[in-house]
Amino acid sequence: MINPVPAALEVCDLRKSFGSLVAVDGISLTLGAGERLALLGPNGAGKTTLIRCLSGRTLPDSGTIRIAGQSVAEEGARDTLGLVPQEIAIYGDLTTRENLTAFGRFHGLRGDELRTRVQWALEWTGLADRARHLVGKFSGGMKRRVNLACGVLHCPSVLLLDEPTVGVDPQSRERIFVMLDELSQLGTSILLTTHHLDEAQSRCDRIVIVDKGRIVANGTLPELVDATVGRSRWVTLAIDRPLVHPLRFAGVPGELHGARGDESLSARIEDVATQLPMVLTTLREAGYGVSDIEVQAPSLHHVFLHLTGRELRD
Description:
The chain is α/β, with parallel strands linked by helices. It has 9 helices and 13 strands.
């Protein structure tokens, strides 16, 4: 009988409190080999505390953590773990090469292996021509790339990323994810926390949403959509004159939303191909012209707000 390959990372019933504040309340999750998993949640949901527990920076109150089937309580278990914290953790008064060399030594690299990995990191980040420049003078996006490289010099099998694109421009965000795609193709398992829902939707294989220290959703985007908001489309139509009174449409449940005097109206429809033509025909027969149409598919944004609410979190 062939033994199943253990998950890259397994978390079972993890709990962590700070006094009366319960930050992580019984979280269990797995990260598969080579998988890219997004960990989402409002401010204060417990994401960073979970990352700190996984990386050994915070001791959980209870629960178990296993990396490739090995308990993190065992010596050397975290040697194959990489961490890139939310705060940029590099030395501003050192050059790019000096930073990479220092962090490589922190990870136990020496000699030819260290030199090879540093040169790889310079090419990987696109900063080979800035190897002798002080990183303190770099842009935020460049610092993030150096920060990321410092966390993966030792070729970790599991990489924990806590908000790796905070405060960077779109070009730098794209470069960072190209870098992460390359790691994923090499087999690195990635756990990513982010507030950029578009990143999670387009760049990750699976999504876990936490709120108040607990997992409230876990699955692929289609699975989360089916379990929450459903796959109906939200249609908005701009009309050529103010709406005189609400309209009902054959074959479309309910009304199109629009108050008297509005110049746009919207509705949720299940089948765009069959129901949208009915809506357009009814509007035309009622004497309205349509100047624009927007059809919005359910997204991770809708799922996230459905599960966690719209109120601000401080």
